Each structure stands twice: as C-alpha cells, then as structure tokens.
C-alpha cells in the first residue's frame, strides 16, 4: 500500500543522487588507495575533492525531491493513512533475494539532517588531514579510511531495508578500529580493541533483532514495517530489547559507555570528530528509525527503563566531568551526558521529545565535532592533554581560547546556540509525558543540565584563565587556513541551528506524529 | 545382471582420476617438473569444466528409487571448488617443489588422487560411495603431510612425520567409527542409498539411533569438531603450509558434504547441536591464546566448522546455509593460507605471529588480502562474503526456531573478532622503540625480515581467489542460486 505514496522513482534523478552519495566516496577511497605511495599529499587532496563532491550531493537532495510527495495537508482528511515513513526519494533494487536483502535507499526529514552532517564532517576531516597527519601511518591511508567510514555512515542513514541497515552498520567497524589503532595515542591498542569488541557485541545483537523482525514480519522493508508492523507484542518487546541494547552500546548509554572515553582519548583528532560527530548518531538514529519505528509497543514497554538510564547517564556524565583532568576525556564524558539527553528525548515517546532528540543529535555533532577539533589541536600543540598543565590559554592564544570558549558555551546549552534546544526540549518532552516518574526524570535531567554548565565553566576557568603554564607558553598560536576552513562551518552552523532550529526539524513533525499515533 | 552405466555423468570423475594417472605417467616418461605441474593443473581445469558441462543430469548406478551417482548443481559447484582448490594448492606448492622439497611427480599424483576423492564425495549417492570417496580424499594426505625431502646440508626434522602419523591414526579410527555407524544403520533400516535413508521404526529404532550418532561422530572427525579436533592443530602446524591449506579447505569441505548428505534424511539434531556449541566456543577460546600463525588459523577453522555444524543441526532445512557458509569459508581460508605461503620462505613452516609483524607495510597487497580474508572470517566488511555467510546461518537458525543457537553463534563471532584483529593489527605494527637503541628498530626489523619475492603461481592463485571472494561478496546470490 505504500506504493500508492512512494513515487516509483527507480532511476530518477533523486535515486541517482542517493546512489552517487555512496558510490562517490567508495570510488574516492579506491582511487586514493591505488595512488602510488609517494603521492601522499596529492592523495589526501584527491580524497578531499571526493568528500567535497559527496557533500555537494547531500545538499542536492532537496532540489531533486519530487514535489508530489507533499502529503502534509491531507493527512487529516479521509484518505488512507499516510505511512509514517515516506521517503522523499527512493531507490529499491534486489540484492540478495535468498536472504531477503534489498538495496533499498531513501531519505526523509528524520535522516536528512544527519546525512548532511556526515557529508560536512567528513569533508572537514579530510581537509584537515591535508595539512595535519597524525603520527602513526600514511595520511593517504587515513583519508581512505575516512571515506570508507563515510560510505558506511551514509549507508546506515539512507537504508530503508533492515538487513541493508545492518550491513552498513557493520561497515564502519573495522575502519574506525584502524583509525584508532593506527593513528592514535600511546594506549591506542587497548582502546581500539575495546571499541571494536564492544561495538561488535552491539551489532550482533542488532543482527539477531533484525533477523527476528524479518523472519516474523516476512519483510525487511522499513516503509512497510514502520508503525503498524503486525508483530505481536511479545515479539516487539524481544526485538526492542535486543535493538535497544545494540544501539545503547553505540550511542552510548550508561552503563554501556565505558568504551567511549578510552576510544576518544586515544583516537586522533579526526577520528574523535567522526566518532563523536557521526558514529554515535548511528545509535540514536537507529533507535528512532528501527527501534521505535519497528517495535512501537516494545518501545512503550521499555520507555521507563530507557528514561531512567538516560537520566543516570546525564548525571553520571556530568559528575565524572566535574572530576576529570584530561581534556579529551572530559569532552568524551560530556558526550555521554549529551547523548543521555538525546536518549531521554527518545524515551519520552512524544513528538517534542523525538524532535528534541533529532535536534540534539545534530547539535552534538556540530558542537562536539568542533570541541574535539579544538581539543585535539590544543593537545597536539601543547604536547599534553592534562588540565593541570594547561592553563592561561587566553594569554598566549586568544583566538584559540575564544573559539574553545564558544564551543564550550554552546555545549553547555546556552539559549540561542544549537545545544540549547535539544536539551531543553528533552526535558519539556518528559514533562509533557506527565506522571510522577517522568516529572522526576525531567527534574533530575534539568539538574544534570545545570551540572553540565558547571563542569564546562570549570573547564573554561582552568584552561583559559589562570597563570600560563610552560606547555601553554610554548604553544604555537597561529591558526592555519585549513584549520579555519575546518572550524568556521561548525561555528556558523552552531549559531544558525541555535537561531533557527526549524532548519533541522522541517518535515519531521508529521512523520513522527504518525509514528507515535498522535496528532501534532 | 548387467547395469547400463551413464558415462556422461561420470565425466568429472574420469577427468580427475585421469589427471592423477597422467601426472604419474608424465613424471615417469617426461620427468620434467614443469610438465608434471602443467599436466596436473590442466587436469584440474578439465575436471572443473566437465563438472559444469555435465551440470545436473540423470544419475547412474541406479537401483529402484535411488542412484549411487547423483549429478546435481550443488555437486557440480563443489566439484569445481575441489578442482580449484587442488590447482590453487599446486600453485602454492610450486616454489617448494622448485627447490625440491618434495618430489614433484609423487606430489602431483597424490594431490590429484585426493581431488578424485573430493569429486566422488560431491556426487556420491550412497553411504558406501560417500565413505570410499572420503577415504580417497584423505588417504593421499597422510603421505602429503609428511612428504618432505631434505637436502644434504639440511637437518632432517620429524615434525612432518609425526603430524602425518597423528593424522593417520585419528583418521583410521574415525573411519572405523563411521563404518560401524553406517553398518548399524543398515542393519536397522536396510538402506544405504542417501535418498532412501529414513529414520527406523519398531524395535530397531535405538539401534538406528546409535548408528546415526556414530556416523555423525565419525564424520565430525573429518571437520575437526570438538571434542574430536585434537589432531587438527598439530597436523596443520606440522604439515607444509600449502598442504595445511588443503586440509583446512578441501578436506573440511569433504567432511561437511558428507555430514550434509547424512543429516538430509536422518535425525542427528541433538548430537550436532552439542558438537556445534562445543566446537565454536572452544575453538574460539583456544584460538585467543595462540601465538603461531598456522595454529591460530587451525583453531579458527575449528571454530568456523562449529558455525557450519550449527546450520546442519537444524536438519535438511539448514543444508543450503551450511553449504553456502562452507564455500564462503573455504575461499576466505584459502586466501589466508595463501598469504602465509607468500610471506614465508618456500620451505619454512607457518612461523609465529611475530614473524608477520609489519608485513602489511612491506607488502601492501598481501596485507590487504589477509585483512580481507580475516575480516571475512570474522564476518565483517570488507569481507562481505563472510558477512553474508554469517547472515545466512543466523537467518536460517532464527527462521527455524533455533534462536538460542543463533545467539551462541553471534556471541562467538564477538570472541573470534578479538584474535582476528590481533593478527590483522600485527601486520601493520612497527617494532616498539624501547629505551636506548643502537640501531633504528624499524630498519633492523626490515633487515631481518626482508621482503620476499612472490612467485608467479602463488601471486596468480592469490589474486584469483581474492577476486572470487570479492565477487561472491557483492553477488552472493550467484552462489545461493547454484546451491538450490
């Protein structure tokens, strides 16, 4: 029945763009990998060009979107109900019929902001790599891995087939391992191993959940499955439990977050940026699209538990950050807190909460991406990430300190910057949900928000104020052109999303409302 | 009473057996190593081509209701695989044969005999043919494992001989067990043809049950299922690396085919489920602690056999998934052994993991091939073939209500990744710089581990198998179509 709505658009301009979004970075990775080893710098530039083309393609999507899919106005009419997942553009090809796997891609309001974010961050990281290659391996190989990561992440966000979603979910695993293990800090081996084993444990649970759904429902098509999937309540509960643990590891949700601080601390700057900016989003996106979408009753059953864990994550993240003495580790733990807000938004199962989660996703990607860029730069230049040896940055490197201050303040959720909306409205969503449990959770989460402000201000006081330490004194203060190129878009977008959050939320209200079965 | 024989269906067997005889005669009359190798390789190719030409056709040696020689698409595909593995192992052995580490004529003859056994297993339609085929597949390997000629300035070692003896003793026992099982089942049901095998009824049921269990246990030796696995690591490690590759691919495939033929009609679910859980769990856990390359691959291939047994535990419904997994696994495992062959000196053993440190930096293509293969064995992209293999096993298990076994399979996949990434990472690791060093450790390491030239046959075999792995990774449907 969804075919009544989805424009049959195999090989239309839109579907070509979808395919190109995956093929261009894959082709780029192949081309750069095959360049002779001597042409390392050229290889990185070629990779950046391919990343730029991919980013251009992600921006192209709204332009090639057929206008006929605009059903917003008659959803309230008498016609058949609009399916909760209505892709703007759609590409559906058979791949492995024996396993029921179709190469089914599509993009809608929920996934589109994340697609653009992925394209942007990969471009910025590739460009950053042109000038600065972390110690460990050739820069060309790092750029290749970044492009492969982009294929996996974009594929995950674009998949409309459950098994395909799983396949792309797995694609990112080994490249990210290689980035951490190859270009990371002194403890990189252990951190990378922890990352890859945790994440694989998550994705095998995802595999079980996905196969269970496909077996019980007889299809892996997310358009058909989303909302009214026809699964029994028991199946939905089992499936949601499997998927929730899988995505909770990826997101990560307390108490499954322990891989994250190590991975972030050891990963090279670009690795941290991609990991925090995009890879974590695969978990929260998966929870919304697959978890809540395919097993809504299971989600409703598990929501209180998820909400409680999310709030514990917020509190735990903030409290750990208050005692943290390592710069990158602190930002990593702050990610735990921020993702806690996102998960709280999802757990409320209200339109407000889910929108807050989507917004929080994008905002966290922008702000934490920027924070990791800056923290990585400071750590590289000062030679240490210990907050005891870093203070008085304001004196020697005012611009760097200013940018860091901006990012930190955005991260603590100052109204008018991107970080505010997601966190505030996750709390609003919990209040809207009502009842003693959710009101308590909202109150505790708000307290966690206050603690977030406390630790970021503490961080700013220690890092930028105070007497200048020797390591800060000897730090190179100039900001190169490539660095400006990598940071400026993030700064501007943080401002823009802060002022115009509707930019991210356009076209999400209706799908989310139909998904949750409420009127917006 | 005479029986009409359909020689057309037997063509692959004639080609394989002819290859063995021709290799022998060429060695006798031409006595040139290159000629013997060429004849064997061409014979292998002819076997593969004829298997495809015959395809599915009428069986032969038929009685009422069943045939002893059954030509189907799965049989043709596995025959092609046996032939390809034989030619590939021949290519891997070429450098060692050139040095005279083994007499070329005997080597080629034995290998071709083994291939003949594989062809018989693929086409077998009754238990006796199956067991004879399996023995023909294994028998030459006892010799090949220990076949080693030492130059006068080399110190002879006995590792090969002891590996050979271990393998021989265990195999003899397993064959005896298999035959006993087949005999008990025959007494109880009166059936030998695979198509006529049925669970026994009446007073003979317990007897038939014991027969089936013994049959499965005997065959489980061949796939090195825990607790019947102890021979495998010692034998693989003692054998020349190309022969270890053959043992863990062709020989294992033969065992899987035989098990599949049995479980297609008889109920061995309980035995197989227990074997599967033990095999994958213990295989993976022990592999975690290995420090020698071939031993690690041996334990990993034990664990992989566990996943195949898990699919077979369902019964007939699991056979397509099990065969698909086995074929994906064989291709990936073959690449892994091929890279070991290419990275080590011709006559050397598999070496320790330390010997492979930094090898991926010195030889990027070989490193990439090994990463592809290990990722596939772990079931992760870029080894898409391995991902689909795991997906098909898990899918089949969940579909038939064996979700708990699927859970065991995926948990084992996590354990397995721990050692696969350890190996893959060590390929790209530089030696540590500890304290004051006299010389640059990187240069020292490079001097001690020079980049060895990869001979043309080895490179070609590796390239072809890597291309096949990538192809079936992107188009696994080809294989699934061929198997059903």
TrEMBL record, chain A:
Record's keyword terms, sorted: Membrane, Transmembrane, Transmembrane helix
Q: Does the keyword Transmembrane apply?
A: yes
Q: Name the domain of life this protein comes from.
A: Bacteria
Spell out the subcellular localization from the entry. Endomembrane system; Membrane
Matches recorded under InterPro entries: NADH_Q_OxRdtase_chainM/4, NADH_UbQ_OxRdtase, ND/Mrp_TM
The answer to whether keyword Transmembrane applies is yes
Q: How does it sit in the membrane?
A: Multi-pass membrane protein
Domain named NADH:quinone oxidoreductase/Mrp antiporter transmembrane is located at 159-444
**Which residue windows are transmembrane per the record?**
12-33, 45-64, 110-130, 142-158, 164-183, 195-218, 238-256, 268-288, 300-323, 330-351, 357-378, 399-417, 437-457, 484-506
Belongs to which family?
Belongs to the complex I subunit 4 family.
Q: What is this protein called?
A: NADH-quinone oxidoreductase subunit M
UniProtKB/TrEMBL annotation, chain B:
Keywords from the named record: Cell membrane, Membrane, NAD, Quinone, Translocase, Transmembrane, Transmembrane helix, Transport
Catalysed reaction(s) here are: a quinone + NADH + 5 H(+)(in) = a quinol + NAD(+) + 4 H(+)(out)
Q: Can you tell which superkingdom this protein's organism belongs to? A: Bacteria
Could you confirm whether the keyword Transmembrane helix appears in this record? yes
Per the UniProt record, which EC number(s) apply here? 7.1.1.-
The annotated topology with respect to the bilayer is: Multi-pass membrane protein
What Pfam families has UniProt attached to this entry? Proton_antipo_M (PF00361)
Q: Please list the residue ranges annotated as the NADH:quinone oxidoreductase/Mrp antiporter transmembrane domain.
A: 124-415
**InterPro entries annotated for this entry?**
NADH-Q_OxRdtase_suN/2, ND/Mrp_TM
Membrane-spanning parts: 12-30, 37-58, 70-92, 104-124, 130-151, 163-187, 207-231, 243-264, 270-289, 296-317, 323-343, 364-389, 401-421, 458-480
Localized where? Cell membrane; Endomembrane system; Membrane
| Functional description taken from the UniProt entry | NDH-1 shuttles electrons from NADH, via FMN and iron-sulfur (Fe-S) centers, to quinones in the respiratory chain. The immediate electron acceptor for the enzyme in this species is believed to be a menaquinone. Couples the redox reaction to proton translocation (for every two electrons transferred, four hydrogen ions are translocated across the cytoplasmic membrane), and thus conserves the redox energy in a proton gradient.
Q: Name the family.
A: Belongs to the complex I subunit 2 family.
Assembly and binders = NDH-1 is composed of 14 different subunits. Subunits NuoA, H, J, K, L, M, N constitute the membrane sector of the complex.
- What is the protein name for this chain? NADH-quinone oxidoreductase subunit N
**Annotated gene:** nuoN_1
């Amino acid at each position: 029945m969804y075919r009544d709505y989805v424009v049959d658009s195999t090989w239309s301009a839109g579907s070509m763009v979808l395919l190109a979004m995956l093929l261009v970075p894959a082709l780029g990775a192949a081309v750069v990998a095959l360049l002779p080893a001597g042409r390392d710098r050229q290889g990185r530039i070629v990779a950046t060009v391919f990343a730029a083309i991919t980013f251009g393609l992600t921006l192209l999507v709204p332009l090639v979107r057929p206008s006929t899919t605009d059903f917003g106005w008659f959803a309230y009419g008498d016609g058949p109900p609009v399916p909760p997942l209505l892709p703007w553009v759609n590409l559906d090809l058979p791949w492995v019929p024996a396993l029921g796997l179709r190469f089914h891609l599509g993009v809608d309001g929920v996934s589109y902001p994340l697609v653009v974010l992925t394209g942007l961050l990969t471009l910025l990281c590739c460009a950053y790599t042109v000038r600065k290659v972390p110690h460990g391996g050739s820069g060309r190989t790092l750029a290749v891995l970044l492009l492969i990561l982009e294929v996996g992440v974009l594929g995950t966000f674009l998949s409309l087939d459950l098994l395909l979603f799983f396949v792309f979910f797995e694609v990112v695993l080994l490249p990210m391992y290689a980035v951490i293990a190859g270009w990371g800090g002194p403890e990189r081996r252990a951190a990378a191993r922890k990352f890859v084993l945790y994440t694989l444990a998550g994705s095998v649970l995802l595999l079980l959940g996905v196969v269970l759904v496909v077996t019980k429902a007889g299809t892996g098509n997310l358009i058909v499955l989303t909302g009214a999937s026809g699964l029994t309540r028991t199946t939905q509960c089992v499936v949601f439990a499997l998927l929730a643990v899988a995505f909770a590891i990826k997101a990560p949700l307390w108490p499954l977050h322990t891989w994250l601080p190590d991975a972030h601390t050891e990963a090279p700057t670009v690795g941290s940026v991609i990991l925090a900016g995009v890879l974590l989003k695969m978990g929260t996106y998966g929870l919304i699209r697959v978890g809540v979408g395919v097993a809504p009753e299971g989600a409703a059953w598990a929501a209180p538990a998820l909400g409680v864990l999310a709030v514990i994550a917020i509190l735990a993240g903030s409290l750990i950050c208050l005692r943290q003495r390592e710069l990158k580790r602190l930002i990593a733990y702050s990610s735990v807190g921020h993702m806690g807000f996102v998960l709280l938004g999802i757990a409320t199962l209200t339109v407000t909460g889910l929108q807050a989660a989507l917004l929080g996703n994008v905002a966290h990607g922008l702000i934490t991406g920027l924070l990791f860029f800056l923290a990585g730069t400071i750590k590289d230049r000062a030679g240490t990430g210990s907050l005891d040896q870093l203070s008085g940055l304001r004196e020697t490197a005012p611009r760097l300190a200013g940018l860091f201050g901006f990012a930190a303040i955005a991260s603590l959720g100052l109204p008018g910057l991107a970080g505010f909306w997601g966190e505030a409205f996750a709390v609003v969503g919990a209040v809207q949900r009502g009842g003693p449990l959710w009101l308590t959770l909202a109150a505790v989460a708000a307290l966690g928000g206050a603690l977030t402000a406390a630790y970021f201000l503490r961080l700013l006081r220690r890092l930028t104020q105070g007497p200048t330490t020797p390591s800060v004194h000897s730090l190179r203060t100039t900001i190169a052109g490539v660095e400006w190129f990598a940071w400026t878009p993030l700064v501007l977008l943080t401002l823009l999303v802060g002022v115009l959050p509707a930019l991210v939320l356009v076209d999400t209200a209706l799908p989310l409302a139909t998904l949750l079965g409420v009127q917006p | 009473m005479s029986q009409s024989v359909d020689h057309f269906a037997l063509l692959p067997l004639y080609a394989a057996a002819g290859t063995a005889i021709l290799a022998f005669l060429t060695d006798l009359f031409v006595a040139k190593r290159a000629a013997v190798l060429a004849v064997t390789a061409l014979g292998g190719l002819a076997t593969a081509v004829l298997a495809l030409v015959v395809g599915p056709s009428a069986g032969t040696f038929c009685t009422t209701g069943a045939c002893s020689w059954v030509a189907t698409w799965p049989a043709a595909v596995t025959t092609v695989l046996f032939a390809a593995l034989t030619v590939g192992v021949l290519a891997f052995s070429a450098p060692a044969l050139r040095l005279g580490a083994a007499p070329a004529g005997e080597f080629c003859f034995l290998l071709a005999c083994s291939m003949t056994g594989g062809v018989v297993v693929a086409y077998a339609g009754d238990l006796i043919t199956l067991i004879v085929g399996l023995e023909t597949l294994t028998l030459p390997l006892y010799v090949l494992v220990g076949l080693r000629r030492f130059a006068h300035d080399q110190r002879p070692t006995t590792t090969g001989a002891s590996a050979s003896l271990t393998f021989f003793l265990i195999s003899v026992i397993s064959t005896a067990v298999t035959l006993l099982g087949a005999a008990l089942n025959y007494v109880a049901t009166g059936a030998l043809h695979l198509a006529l095998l049925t669970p026994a009824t009446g007073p003979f049921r317990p007897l038939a049950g014991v027969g089936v269990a013994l049959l499965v246990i005997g065959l489980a030796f061949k796939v090195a299922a825990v607790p019947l696995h102890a021979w495998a690591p010692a034998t693989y490690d003692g054998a020349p690396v190309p022969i270890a590759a053959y043992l863990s691919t062709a020989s294992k495939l033969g065992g899987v085919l035989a098990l599949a033929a049995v479980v297609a009609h008889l109920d061995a679910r309980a035995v197989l489920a227990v074997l599967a859980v033990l095999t994958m769990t213990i295989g993976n856990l022990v592999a975690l602690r290995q420090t020698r390359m071939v031993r690690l691959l041996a334990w990993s291939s034990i664990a992989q056999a566990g996943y195949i047994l898990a699919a077979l535990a369902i019964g007939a419904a699991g056979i397509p998934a099990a065969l698909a997994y086995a074929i994906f696994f064989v291709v990936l495992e073959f690449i892994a052994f091929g890279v070991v062959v290419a990275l080590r000196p011709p006559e050397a053993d598999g070496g320790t993991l330390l010997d492979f440190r930094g090898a991926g930096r010195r030889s990027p293509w070989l490193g990439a091939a090994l990463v592809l293969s290990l990722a596939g064995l772990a079931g992760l992209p870029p080894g898409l073939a391995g991902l689909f293999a795991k997906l098909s096993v898990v899918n089949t298990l969940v579909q038939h209500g064996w979700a708990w076994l699927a859970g065991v399979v995926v948990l084992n996949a996590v354990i397995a990744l721990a050692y696969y990434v350890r190996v893959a990472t060590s390929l790209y690791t530089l030696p540590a710089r500890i304290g004051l060093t006299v010389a640059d450790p990187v240069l020292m390491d490079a001097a001690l581990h020079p980049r060895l030239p990869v001979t043309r046959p080895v490179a070609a075999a590796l390239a072809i198998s890597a291309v096949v792995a990538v192809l079936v990774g992107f188009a696994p449907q080809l294989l699934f179509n061929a198997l059903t």
